[in-house]
Amino acid sequence: MVNLKWKGKEEREDILSKNNETMHFQIHDIYPSINISPTSEQVWQNLLIRGENKAVMKVLLKKFENKITLIYIDPPFATGGDFNLKVQLGEEGKYLESIAYKDKWREGLDSYLNFLYERLVLMKILLAGKGSIYIHLDWHISHYIKLIMDEIFGIENFRNEIIWGYPAASVKTRRFFIRSYDTILFYSKSDDYIFNDDPNIYMEYSSRVKNALKKDEKGIFYYRGGSHNGKKLSRKVYIEQEGIFPRDVWNDIPYIRANTPEYQGFSTQKPERLLKRIILASTNEKDLVADFFCGSGTTLAVAEKLGRYWIGCDLNRHAIHITRKRILNISRSNDILNWKKRYCKDPENFQILSFEKKDTLISLPNVFLQKDVQDEKGYQTKEIPDLNVKIHQSNNKIMIELLDYIIPFNDLLADKIKENIKSFLDFIDYWAIDFNSQNNIFKAMWYSYRTPKVRVLPLKSDTYYYDKSGDYNILVKTIDIFGIESVKSYKIKII
Ligand SMILES: C[S@@+](CC[C@H](N)C(=O)[O-])C[C@H]1O[C@@H](n2cnc3c(N)ncnc32)[C@H](O)[C@@H]1O
To answer: Are residues 222 and 350 both part of a single domain?
Structure first.
């Protein structure tokens, strides 16, 4: 049994004993609108959670111990670098590069190992008996994490070290061989785990084999070959499909490029086809898939398209917002089982949660700021932008129009932002309405958002028709280019 030591290693019992009894999730948004009444049977809703994943998992333990069939994570790799995401501005869509996450470990390797170790211990508890975990890393740290995984999951549950190879970007070094692959460590929780031989996970034959394949009169593929007693033959050898069961070296999945339709402007975004193979192999329909470092939401989008339930978590507000829009826009994305077609289905219900009901402290990174106000921590403020709307009412019909969006820190903004903001609407990236809010929970009954390609945002909502007379509470929510959420509430009377 491996037992590793490093500076500051937490004992398993300590990780679990400091429980977050007092922490609870607050619901920010519910999509699409459904009524949840405490008396009705609750329908499952996929969960997108903004927060530090250790705290998030501790809260999830209460409900999801042994419940998650697949966990895929793509955490920071201890590279020492910063990683970017693109923040697009207004209708023209010009962008700034903002920091998605920092991968610098000032207290050294031990602090990184401790960071991941604590989280992996929690993930094992969340994983179902037949479940599996895939950890996406690279040469920086994968060998350390392999040993840590052997300690937590047991070497007997190690299944594969998957090598995902991709053509390296042009690298100038001539001091060592060019690094051009990531490592994905695959462990199951036990020996009795789900692993599907699904033709959709197969790798294509090499072009040499594909060129040698022929189709018979029934359309079935064969090649000429085979052998008998060491002698080569030239008989028809039939194959069942155009592909082979995957090896552990995956070089058939290209890296994401800025011109690929799935690109969300997230620099460390992983390809949907990578997740397709993992999810199809290690889960069945309606199983629960989780990604606690979800970034732009690749795992969740693929789980959604494959009819799996999902939980995603990230601490970055931009990552959560990119994921929200990616899921809302999923019907226009590629069908994962038939890439040339669109998916053409709306997403299942999902909720966005975090530990705070409202944004209380806004932290603006330096990229948004004038030089003279830049600081190591960026700019911190408690002042949330203010939103102004007009409610157009005619009998039982309501339409809402955005009138203004006032940014309290406008003077501090970098010139590059100011130059590209032609009207207040350019600050807004998304807006939504709950025409009948109860308990101040926001059901997104109407929403509109900019995507990386479609940048137009309407000033006016669709018209909503009320069936019954009464007093109603309307909530209007905006999310701006800084990822800041503002909500305003209005009372109306329908006679
Ligand atoms: C490599 S990216 C994931 C990219 C993702 N696989 C995709 O396809 O877009 C890692 C993500 O982990 C998030 N992250 C880092 N530390 C975290 C933590 N302690 N809790 C939650 N999220 C974290 C970062 O904000 C970042 O979005």
So the answer is: no
Q: Would you state the pLDDT for residue 321?
A: 96
Q: Are 31 and 328 in contact (CB under 8 A)?
A: yes
pLDDT of 450-461, one tens digit each? Answer: 999 899 999 999
Gap between the Cα atoms of 79 and 35, Å rounded: 45
Token code pair at residue 67: 């419940």
Asked whether residue 160 falls in the same domain as residue 225, the answer is: no
CATH number, residue 274: 3.40.50.150
Pick out the chain residues at pLDDT < 50. Answer: 37-39
Q: Which parts of 158-251 are beta strand (E)?
A: 158-165, 181-188, 214-215, 221-228, 231-238, 249-250
Question: Is there a single domain that holds both residue 31 and residue 171?
Answer: yes
Q: How many helices (H) and strands (E) does the chain have?
A: 9, 26
CA contacts within 13 A on the Cβ side of 39: 0
Percentage above 90 pLDDT, the chain: 67
Count up the domains in the chain and report the number. Answer: 3
Question: In this structure, are 349 and 408 located in the same domain?
Answer: no
Query: Atom 22, ligand 1: which residue's CA is nearest?
Result: 314
Whether residue 369 is found in the same domain as residue 349 = no
Whether 243 maps to a domain, the answer reads: no
Which three-class secondary structure state does DSSP give residue 277?
helix
CATH number at residue 399: 2.60.40.10
For residue 102, the CA-to-ligand 1 centroid distance in Å is 10
Range of the domain at 230: 207-238
Tokens linked to 301: 């989008």
Q: b/e for 136-154, b at 16 or more Cβ within 10 A?
A: bbeebbbebbbebbbbbbb
**Ligand 1 in reach of 298 Cβ (< 6 A):** yes
Number of C-beta neighbours around residue 201 at 10 A: 17
Q: Distance, CA 101 to ligand 1 centroid (Å)?
A: 7
Among residues 354, 384, 416, the one where a domain terminates is: 354
CA dihedral over 354, 359, 360, 362, signed as positive or negative: positive
Task: Report whether residue 314 contacts ligand 1, using a CB cutoff of 6 Å.
Answer: yes
